[in-house]
Design brief:
single chain, alpha/beta, Rossmann fold, 5 strands, globular
């Protein structure tokens, strides 16, 4: 089973974006993969609007991404955090999807 890091927007309408991330994680799981979607989990105990807590979350995101086999990016908007995750992916396969979960390209 591949470990797939789920990258999608958090900032903005946080509750809506977390709900979308839950659907993206389900989409990954339904394809036989283990979804790693830290913004669903970390928002339960860290506050993204507090810089020190955001930095801690991003450090933990990087650790989890290193453990993953692939990065799947969801949505048309690529936030600053998502850009960082894409950069951290190094040589991992990256797949891009719309908000409707239609694949648009592989990197």
């Amino acid at each position: 089973m591949k470990k797939v890091y789920v990258s999608s927007q958090l900032r903005g309408n946080v509750q809506s974006n977390i709900s979308k991330a839950q659907w993206y994680a389900r989409f990954v799981a339904e394809r036989g993969n283990l979804p790693i979607a830290p913004h669903i989990y970390f928002t339960q105990f860290l506050r993204d609007h507090i810089p020190e807590e955001r930095d801690l979350a991003m450090d933990m995101n990087r650790e989890l991404l290193e453990w993953c086999d692939e990065l799947w990016v969801f949505g048309e908007v690529i936030s600053e955090g998502m850009k960082q995750e894409i950069e951290w992916a190094n040589d991992k396969p990256i797949r891009y999807f719309t908000e409707e979960m239609k694949e648009v390209r592989k990197a």
